[in-house]
Write a structure and sequence with these properties.
Layout lengths: L1 H55 L14 E5 L2 E9 L4 E2 L5 H10 L4 H15 L12 H6 L25 H7 L3 E2 L14 H4 L7 H13 L16 E10 L2 E14 L2 E10 L1
Parallel strand pairs: 3-4
Antiparallel strand pairs: 1-2, 2-5, 5-6, 6-7
Helix pairs in contact: 2-3
Length: about 270
């Protein structure tokens, strides 16, 4: 009987040892992952600071592109890809009129009726007027579909908020997201900095014309760069940083607004891990 107790004791100790070993491995993995995240954050912050310097540099040859075309940047032995996008090249959800938004959704694959209906709902979302557009939706329509919320009846606070609009699908949002912003404050976009998805929304722009324009812009060294004599105070830019690691690509995206204040050259409007 004594041997049974001994064997049972050995089995119990072995179980405890394996549990401790497993916990130690998990802790080590979590610590390593936390270190990688911290390193990626540090690298992204360094890239952000470098991108701001490139935006503010008065020497034309030191400026970086602001049309979303990436370039490599090395910091502390780490090489990253950085892409700066001028938000004036995107369609502002709070400022664009019906024709521009309709063009965007038509280019994303919706038919004329579906695009018009969705745009009415977007306009109703951002419009404080309680009256509903022909194909729009206000509180009653949202409640009728079982949703626990209604439209904001005010400006979109983020592009992601578009996913809450009635009839917006995740797949459609993914197709149009690169074209959109809430930071430009302009009704129209600047085509010299616009991404492909935004260019396709412009009247008269065909897919082949957009492809030709994007290819020509990418091949020109000085294309997509800002005039150093133009003041950038109040202008917003998104800065995307991609860092390759053993766990795959780690992507950070910040949106900043430049100022004219030497002690506070920019404000961070958003910062997210993608």
């Amino acid at each position: 009987m004594a041997i049974v107790y001994v064997l049972w004791g050995i089995a119990l100790l072995s179980s405890i040892a394996m549990s401790l070993l497993s916990t130690g491995n998990v802790s080590t993995h979590l610590s390593r992952h936390g270190l990688q995240v911290a390193q990626a954050d540090m690298a992204a912050e360094a890239a952000l600071a470098r991108a701001v310097l490139a935006l503010l540099d008065r020497r034309p040859e030191r400026r970086w592109r602001v049309d979303g075309i990436p370039q490599d940047f090395a910091f502390a032995g780490v090489t990253m890809r950085i892409a700066i996008q001028d938000e004036l090249g995107r369609i502002d959800l709070n400022q664009a009129d019906q024709s521009v938004l309709t063009g965007l959704f038509r280019s994303a694959g919706l038919g004329a009726q579906a695009a018009s209906s969705l745009v009415d709902k977007i306009l109703d979302w951002r419009d404080a007027n309680p009256a509903r557009r022909l194909n729009g939706a206000k509180d009653r329509e949202y409640r009728a579909t079982g949703l626990a919320y209604g439209p904001r009846n005010g400006p979109f606070q983020s592009v992601a908020e578009l996913k809450l609009v009635m009839d917006m699908t995740p797949e459609l949002f993914e197709r149009v997201e690169p074209a959109l912003t809430v930071y430009s404050g302009r009704q129209f976009l600047d085509p010299q900095f616009a991404p492909r998805e935004a260019l396709q929304a412009l009247p008269g722009m065909t897919a082949s014309a957009v492809s030709a324009l994007v290819a020509a812009r990418a091949s020109q060294t000085r294309a997509g760069m800002l005039d150093p004599t133009v003041s950038l105070g109040g202008r917003a830019f998104s800065i995307r940083t991609e860092l390759q690691s053993n766990d795959g690509a780690q992507v950070r995206e910040a949106v900043i607004r430049l100022t004219d204040h030497p002690l506070q050259p920019y404000w961070v409007l958003s910062w997210r891990l993608k």
